[in-house]
Specification:
3-stranded antiparallel β-sheet, 4 helices, elongated
Amino acid sequence: MKPFSFVELELRVRTILRRGLTRESDVFEVADLRLDVLRRKVTRDGVEIALTNKEFMLLHLLMKRQGEVLSRTQIASEVWDMNFDSDTNVVDVAVKRLRAKVDAPFGRKLISTIRSVGYSLSLDA
């Protein structure tokens, strides 16, 4: 332990506190789709949508990476925390179920399939 000045410690703590905490946004919105991470609530056009935990995680990933094309491998590793096995269709089934809840009842489709690549969530779907 080195000797230190309490005044210097106090100044350093104040500086850090002034910077504030930076963290990821708690609410994501794409068109009329809204995902509130803290409340674990999803709404579309004002209608609340009930999602399973994995569906919520999948939608959260797609929304926070809006406009990007995510491969099945990326989705499987981030949502299921597993190495992707090309023989499994876990991601495809999850996306299909998510679409049935988030896209099917509404006029505008947000989740799109990029053939032979993966999935994307954007206004251009």
